[in-house]
Every structure is written in C-alpha cells, then in structure tokens.
Design brief:
There is one protein chain. Helix content is 85%, strand content 0%. By secondary structure, the chain is an all-alpha fold. 0% of the residues are buried.
Length: 94
C-alpha cells in the first residue's frame, strides 16, 4: 500500500472546503458553546467524522470493484440533484 501525496492533498482540500459551514460544523459549534469541556466535544466530533469517513472509504472500495466509476458518478450526481430539488420544494412550501 503506497501513499499518494497528491491524492492526499487533493482529498484534504476537497473535503475541507466542502465541510466549511455545513450542518455538522454548526452542530459542533453549538455543542462547544454549551460545554465546559471543548476537548470532549472535539474528540467526539473527530471520532464521528473519522468513523463515517472509514465507512465511506471501505464501502467505496468494495463497491468500486463491482460498479463502474461512471455509474457511481451519475448516481451520486442524481442523489445530490434530488436533495437539492427536495430542499427547494420544502423551502417554497413554507
């Protein structure tokens, strides 16, 4: 297993930028404001993010062996578009 520095950096940048200001970060912010132990909040949030990332990497590796990358990208795009449409519909209903 070789480490690819370029892949590490591009993954870090993509995930870091995507996560800025998302609901997980805002929830962690809220938990930290009501806590006397910021370290506990940090460890809990970090552990959760590491676990969800591990699950995504393992599932992605397994699924990637059987499903073509193009199909995964198309399905991913459709899911994101679907969530966007649902968000718009909910917004305009209120």
């Amino acid at each position: 297993m070789l480490l690819n520095a370029r892949l590490i950096v591009s993954t870090f940048v993509m995930i870091f930028l995507a996560e800025l200001g998302d609901k997980t970060q805002i929830s962690t912010f809220a938990l930290a404001t009501n806590s006397r132990s910021m370290l506990s909040v940090f460890l809990g949030a970090s552990g959760a993010l590491v676990l969800t990332t591990l699950i995504a990497v393992v599932l992605g590796g397994v699924i990637g062996r059987f499903v073509p990358e193009k199909l995964i990208r198309v399905v991913s795009a459709a899911v994101f578009i679907g969530f966007g449409v649902l968000t718009l519909v909910e917004t305009f209903r209120k």
